Amino acid sequence: MALDTPIFLRELVVSTAIFLFTYIVIRFINSKFTHRLPPGPRGWPILGALPLLGSMPHVSLAKMAKKYGPIIYLKVGTCGMVVASTPESAKAFLKTLDKNFSNRPPNAGATHLAYDSQDMVFAEYGPRWKLLRKLSNLHMLGGKALQEWADVRVSEVGHMLQDMYVLSKRNEPVVVSEMLTYAMANMIGQVILSRRIFATKNNELNEFKDMVVELMTSAGFFNIGDYIPSISWMDIQGIEGGMKRLHTKFDVLLTKMLEEHKASAYGRKGKPDFLDVVMANCDNSEGERLDTTNIKALLLNLFTAGTDTSSSIIEWALAEMLKNPSILKKTHEEMARVVPKNRRLLESDIPKLPYLQAICKETFRMHPSTPLNLPRVASEACEVNGYYIPKDTRLSVNIWAIGRDPQVWENPLEFNPDRFLTGKNAKIDPRGNDFELIPFGAGRRICAGTRMGIVLVEYILGTLVHSFDWKLPDNVRELNMDEAFGLALQKAVPLSAIVVPRLPPNSYVP
């Protein structure tokens, strides 16, 4: 049969038009999911950008942000990672898209240190995480709970001052990090277990401090096995082996704590501590139940983060004040107007000490305890500032870079507490709502200990400054301000200083 050419041509044109129209519509519909990725470095074969991060990833990523922009994308091994380095970009991820980035990616730290993510920090966002968070807030970290254990803070700070007073009479230097670890571990021990963990500063305390620092350091490493899972079994850097050995040490310590706590239950009748409350309320309405592993993992969170992050901020603040004696002098002058020299500083004095509070904020800005927020992961593909963010992309917010952004802060490398006393910065608060200053993160996965951290930093720093004059040892000509990268940003060289009492001797009695 002869082919009807006009009909054939018409059908061909119609079919072609339908095909083109369909193709264009599909391209248009999919266009919002096919936007280009954020800019970033090309990286190396297989390893991607891992070698570009160096030993100080927060610094390397800040330099990349200056070159590529506020949102950068890196291929790290087989994984994608997006980094936000400005207040606006951090807000886009941690507020606007908070729910999509509410989970943690799998990593060796969660597996080997945190009982396979059975803790509060690394737990999947869901009923168990909510139960852990609720119990922690109600009975230890929330405002009412903090008021209830205010006497514990006073007592343990008193023990620390007494030890420092003894050293001052011998003209021996105070190693600040050791003193703070001793005090904070005992504070947390009294709240959680109704007892001091370390009766004296001894080898057990030093080992505990070393364990905490090692945990924070190793958990902050960029472990190749996390980004190239197929070779994780090789443990090329030796990180996972170290984590396993460290976990065994912590597990022995935590198991001992639980056993001793159980054995002493009779003596606490009528006055339950945090662990009693947790064990009595380890169910929720959604059928979630905490087991012994969850409880040990939670204790690990509270003891390590509770002792390390706040102590590092206080140490950095004291170092900056020793480096800038005029700031220390101005702080003493403010305190002289508010706090009598015949007694120790009280927590109720702090609202009347705006310069002290400004010093704390300035330290949070320049020396955030977590320079890179704990990583999150995209549950679904999304779009940020016109850039396509694929599903399973890991998110890091460079808190350190935000605090040193010259577009946000005038003279950002200068330690200047006055910037928080007047103008727009006077209203900035570090609790996660002002993205110019988010030392504890923001959003639903903000650090659970934010409120406690601020209370401890302001009270302990204020007490140390009010109680003593501070100076460097005679053999120290220049203060080392180098950083040591980890989950918490430590001083590379621990601060050691000579203290001179400013109060009557009875002020240094617990």
TrEMBL record:
Coiled coil: none annotated. Its EC number is 1.14.14.81. The keyword Manganese does not apply. One of its GO terms (molecular function) is heme binding. The chain crosses the membrane at residues 12-29. Heme binds at residue 447. It is an enzyme of class 1 (oxidoreductase). Pathway: Pigment biosynthesis; anthocyanin biosynthesis. The keyword NADP applies. Keywords: Heme, Iron, Membrane, Metal-binding, Monooxygenase, NADP, Oxidoreductase, Transmembrane, Transmembrane helix. InterPro entries: Cyt_P450, Cyt_P450_CS, Cyt_P450_E_grp-I, Cyt_P450_sf. Its cofactor is heme. It catalyses: a 3',5'-unsubstituted flavanone + 2 reduced [NADPH--hemoprotein reductase] + 2 O2 = a 3',5'-dihydroxyflavanone + 2 oxidized [NADPH--hemoprotein reductase] + 2 H2O + 2 H(+). Belongs to the cytochrome P450 family. PANTHER family: CYTOCHROME P450 98A9, FLAVONOID 3'-MONOOXYGENASE. Catalyzes the 3'5'-hydroxylation of naringenin and eriodictyol to form 5,7,3,'4',5'-pentahydroxyflavanone and 3',5'-hydroxylation of dihydrokaempferol and dihydroquercetin to form dihydromyricetin. This is flavonoid 3',5'-hydroxylase.
